[in-house]
Amino acid sequence: MAExxxxxxxxxxxxxxxxxxxxxxxxxxxxxxxxxxxNELKEKDKLSRLAIFISQFKSFIIxxxxxxxxxxxxISEYIDSIVIFIILILNAILGFIQEYRAEKAIAxxxxxxxxxxxxxxxxxxxxxxxxxxxxxxxxxxxxGTKISADGRIIESSMLETLESSLTGESNxxxxxxxxxxxxxxxxxxxxxxxxxxIVSKGRARIIVTATGMNTEIGKIAGLISEVKKESxxxxxxxxxxxxAFGFGTIIIAxxxxxxxxxxxxxxxxxxxxxxxxxxTGSEKWLVTAVALAVAAVPEGxxxxxxxxxxxxxxxxxxxxxxxxxLPSVETLGxxxxxxxDKTGTLTENKMTVRKAYVSGKEIDISGNGYSLEGELKxxxxxxxxxxxxxxxxxxxxxxxxxxxxxxxxxxxxxxSNKTISNENHITHEIVYEKKEDKIEVIGDPTExxxxxxxxxxxxxxxxxxxxxxxxxxxxxxxIKKLMSTINVExxxxxxYLFSKGAPERILERCNKIYVNGKVxxxxxxxxxxxxxxxxxxxxxxxxxxxxxxxEVKTYKNLDNIDENLIFVGxxxxxxxxxxxxxxxxxxxxxxxxxxxxxxxxxxxxxxSIAKEIGINGTSINGSDFxxxxxxxxxxxxxxxxxxxxxxxxxxxxxxxxxxKRGEIVxxxxxxxxxxxxxxxxxxxxxxxxxxxxVTKETSDMILEDDNFSTIVNAIEExxxxxxxxxxxxxxxxxxxxxEVMIIFFALLFSWPLPMTAVMLLWxxxxxxxxxxxxxxxVGNPPxxxxxxxxxxxGIIDRTTGIKIAFMSILMTLGVLALFYLSMNNYSxxxxxxxxxxIQTIAFTTIVLxxxxxxxxxxxxxxxxxxxxxxxxxxxxxxxxLQLLVIYTPLNIFFGTTILNLIDWVYIMGAVIAVFIMNGxxxxxxxxxxxx
Length: 931
Hints:
There is one protein chain. The chain is an alpha+beta fold. It has four domains: about 5-40 and about 115-225, Distorted Sandwich (Calcium-transporting ATPase, cytoplasmic transduction domain A); about 230-315 and about 715-780 and about 790-930, Calcium-transporting ATPase, transmembrane domain; about 320-345 and about 580-705, Rossmann fold; about 385-515 and about 525-565, Calcium-transporting ATPase, cytoplasmic domain N (3-Layer(aba) Sandwich). It has 31 helices and 28 strands. A hairpin with a 4-residue loop joins strand 16 (about 470-475) and strand 17. Helix 9 runs parallel beside helix 25 and helix 27 packs antiparallel against helix 28 (about 830-860).
């Protein structure tokens, strides 16, 4: 049977019952989805809920606790064993909830960051999730697209793809649309494209031939297994910290166990050989030591970090920042430099042509935005020959618009049905909808603005494009900074090349000039006048494009086809700054974040916009910067915040030099060639509206609205997330350290145990669970963006370490002091009653201190008491649960007893004293700490 690369276009369309212009209809799509399933590769089986629950028991410490539980049953301590078992299950449930939520959050994040594809369905170009693609779909691809399914090319325009992921071939493959004959190896099938490969140049329309596991990449078993899930750097650090803390705790627990056993009955066992008595006495110390280890080791830290990061990403998404990789949330809070594109990020990307220059005439063009209302005004008479400038603006153009207020003014780039060559014009999708202008812009806003200026000049889009049929396109080149098309004139059948691009790049390719309908050699005076006019327009914040043309006899070799052009004129358009950007830049300055503007525009345009939005510093052209030595570049970079006429390679240099200086760099981009710099940056940011698939896949964050202010909002949220993590780490470690020290020093003083094993396990459940998690989602402090971030600061910096140690000591002293006082106050009680009373007091005191500890942390960050409902609920739950184990029959299981009013007075006194001393200590730490 013939392969699809052997098929003729008509045979291909017939085979898939599709239509190259209309695509599939809704019924066909549904039918094929039920037959072929989703267009996705099968992943390794994920952990089931049961497996996640069972994994909560896979811990060395838990194994020991289970062993202790078995010992308790063996020696008939049934009440203790029941309570330990219940707490074990409750702990496992809490751990399951945390891990399951984390898994769901990560899965949701992967779904959100999934790529989209453009298809034609029922005659309309629509954007769909790649998994919705079915065989027979008409797929539109262009430079920067990651191809989502296997397909046969039916129309193309200078298409080249990178297929190294499939064939190992690192060089771009030039594609064609003709059928191929014979049996051809995969790498030689030049009329086919494959899932997972990338469009490096040009555009095409393809018909999908295979999806999901039926694609070539789906057949390769080694490539379909899911990549092993990696922890974020912060999770790894905290896991390491938790292990170190746990290791120390286990050593102390072992010491407590040994001392306890020796103290209780080791000698009696040696002398009398009473094994049961030895086990009974040792069980209490074994369970206590293990319970202390369980309570003190912050095993839940990584899961809480994941949930906190995931919740943070959800908040960022509401502000139009899609975080693709969790580790980037950690880095966001440390950003010190934002390298931002100008067009569409700092500006509105809403172009309006205001000025034109042709045949020595300066033309003013009225109107705003994408409105068709406006006219051309000039001191000199505008004749029909001058319209050549605007004709090129229409013919060398891939965009269009729909005027919703007057459908007869629709301007749309049509698909070419006439096969003049194998490379036909392919349209872009609708990327913006400007409702205020009642205009839907299709493609690039700059090109759409040229169509509107031509319409204002009285030109008819349909008449021109029908008379001048496009036969070939040379896409925009970021190095040449120009784009060209070849169009055939209907009457003479002559071919003409039309070009537009950066004025200086167009001029350097021109040897003639078009003036009042006549062509003559371009002179030095002409060039000086045009450069002067370009600078004049640029200083008015106008983005300027140059336009040229020439007749071409043949165009088989396109290497130097854009040389020896005829210069026609200039068009200058305004792209006003976003209104909110100036405020965001001021916020960055307060936060110690430097802003560097990077643009392909003229330096004068860049300087004008920078001044308007508050970016200070000197400016330089990218080429001039590239010609400097590295030492000189470093010196220039110290004060230069405006880079004009930048090429993608210049971005990489800027990132490298900034990182060498220790800066944490965020870099924006949208094109294929921006991908290396975005990947190199600490935070790579892709444009959601105008960015290519390659850029999006390389990035750490996608701006859904392409707005600079969204970057600043995301950085603020990143700082807030880092502070939240610091808060609950501070809380957990200070509380857990206090618990260890209380048991250790009580034993050292030969006092009774302040808390039983069951109490320690209960505390681990009540105070280390929900309150710690709720601390991770509290609001941001008001001064978060009022001071520079500490570069690459850890979660436990010197200040936080001092606070943890100080609070742990205070809590230990407070509980031990009250415990000693209780031993004296209730010395008349005997046996079990005495131990239950003093242990209940110590137990309740440490629980309340840990709850109050939460509020003291909130006070440090100037957060209101009622600013987080989850934390309030968590605290209230902890208090209610504590009261239940004291004042209900549950006290039988926990070994507690009812506390009277005097007990509560002592407890609250100790808690308040510790709270006050902590407040004083924080003031001292703030005054003297210089970390």
